[in-house]
Amino acid sequence: MPAAARPTHRRATIETADGQPRASAYVCEAASCMSAQSHDITLRLGERIAAAGMTDVTIKRVGCLGLCAAGPLVEIAETAELFERVKPDDVEGIVKALKKVKPTDTRRPQGPFFEKQLRIVTENMGRIDPESLDDYVGRGGYEALKRVLSDMTSTEVRDEITRSGLRGRGGAGYPVGLKWTTVAKAEGTQKYVVCNADEGDPGAFMDRSVLESDPFRVLEGMAIAAFAVHANEGYIYCRAEYPLAVSRLRTAIRLAQRAGFLGTGIADTNFNFDVQIRLGAGAFVCGEETALIASIEGRRGTPRPRPPYPAVSGLWDCPTLLNNVESYANVPTILNKGADWYSEFGIGKSKGTKVFALAGRIVNTGLIEVPMGTTLREIVFDIGGGIIGGRPFKAVQTGGPSGGCIPAEFLDMAVSYESLIEVGSFMGSGGLIVMDDTSCMVDVAKYFMDFCREESCGKCVPCRVGTTELYIILDLISRGEATLDDLAQLERLAGIIQKTSLCGLGQGAPNPIFSTLRYFRDEYMAHIVDKTCPAGVCTITAPEVMA
Amino acid sequence: MPVLHAKPQAPTDDKRWKIVETRMRRMGDRPAALIEALHAAQEAFGYLDTDALNYVGDTLGVPHSRVYGVATFYSFFTLKPQGEHTCVVCTGTACYINGAKDILSGLEKALHVKPRQTTADNKISVLTARCVGSCSLAPAVIIDGDVKGKVNVVDLVAQLEAM
Lengths: 547, 163
Known about the structure:
The complex is a heterodimer. Chain A has helices spanning 31-34, 38-51, 91-100, 112-115, 133-138, 143-151, 154-164, 176-185, 206-213, 215-229, 243-258, 289-296, 325-337, 339-343, 376-383, 417-422, 441-455, 461-478, 484-500, 504-508, 511-530, and strands at residues 23-28, 57-62, 74-76, 81-83, 192-197, 233-238, 274-279, 320-324, 346-347, 350-351, 353-360, 366-371, 393-398, 404-407, 431-436.
């Protein structure tokens, strides 16, 4: 849409003595609240305030306020009063509340959903207008980049990141500093910095929210990375399914270029770096790094064997640094506050925080950020508000189609890269899907296998043929038509596929089977032996067994 | 490898080809622009027909076979025209455990269409998506580009039938 046609909701002129508004209403305009017509709320609030002649009040569009379940959300910034499920008729109430705000008001605690969180990556979310560079700079944005360019060498930057203990937030947890060093030391004059924003795990929307709410942070992180590894071209590979994130990124790139934070001679130094966006086209496998690179090059997104790793030979055979959105988003804060500050958060080898997307049968679905080491119980019950309708908790699924289901007995486990692997799951990008007794674990395993079967790129046989075979057996089990021999075959085949597939998609595809078998074997047995589905989800086609 | 070629003519004098041509030119008419060009063509025309595939391939110096290979690899691209309206049902994990299956079966019952099919009157195409990232609104559908959350199948069918 051309700028002129877009309904305007820029803040009105503020007529107070110091030019600062007395009161501000922040309206969430990230995808979730937008789909609940939050933009209409912004417009209506603006009209009402203009009509009431309130010249000391501002209405601001902001990114994700976190509590997506209760959208559209409006927050009064001065008091942190949160209005949930706002309908056009509720606007009067918000205007009244805005009238009452006094200069002495302070932000009051907002309950466990907010109190138990620690915001590093999401510190600007819901605080800034994602399409305003001034807002970002006003909260300390681009200070890290300016300091890096004027006071630090690339080695110092890499050392700082290494000392912070930051690990890749895309799932595998590879040390970020080590990757940067490999790229910096790789031979070649042309190097690339690539941001993986192809968030394909179903149930994950962290990267989308970061891009929609604070796109400049990602651009700043990428620019710092480019300086550290001696690159001057960058790509952001983003899913086409995220139109709002793409449009905000485009705006952010344009504004950053105009202000001299991207392009030639950044921040009045001789450092050059520019970024282009490439759209994905609905292939899950493109989240794998070599497939992603093939896709940027305009080819089918099929992975290739590693080594060589992209850090040595990536995009157009040049050394390429590939990190995901959340990893880059951590970088500016680490450089602002220091590696020592950052590494104090977390547990063991998992430092800092992790952003999680809470979804499924949970009360407070939405976006949260917690220190590594927070327990699942705190996440699901304190922050997440527990299960919808007070039903019994059954499992939490992490790591997408390569992850696993974690049962209630591990609710008090501290979440880290290592602990999740120990219980047979995987950090993944950070989608947490909570399940109650209405979910059948055989059906869940079948669901993920159907996903992997469809998304397999077809290049290697174990994944292409194997995932289909596993799906066929799971389908038999779910219909009550399978025998114990089929179950044995399922386990054998899953092991082979895990060991012989080319890339992470195939290697991880059997994980949902392993983890559901490990903790919910009784449900498999109920389908196979008793021909019943305990959760009542599966349609049993086999004749019932008389007890 | 790119072959030296004269710049091909657009298949028709439809002005929308200009959009596609511009997008390719901005990326230097190189083979790497293939996916972006297909996005541009699909945005302009709603789907990719053989003319579009060949035109893009000829302009970028990519063999037709490879263009077809790429267009069919990525599920976002469609080679068939869509109905007047599209209804994309999200089948991501959160939507799945919150009833996406019931939505699909409800649509099938009411409109007699399965995913990737269009109603007989060419009004509505039903599609599925792997995850649209609106997990907090599960189950979600996208009607003509607008996300609708916490969908109730009866209301959805009523809305689609009224279109």
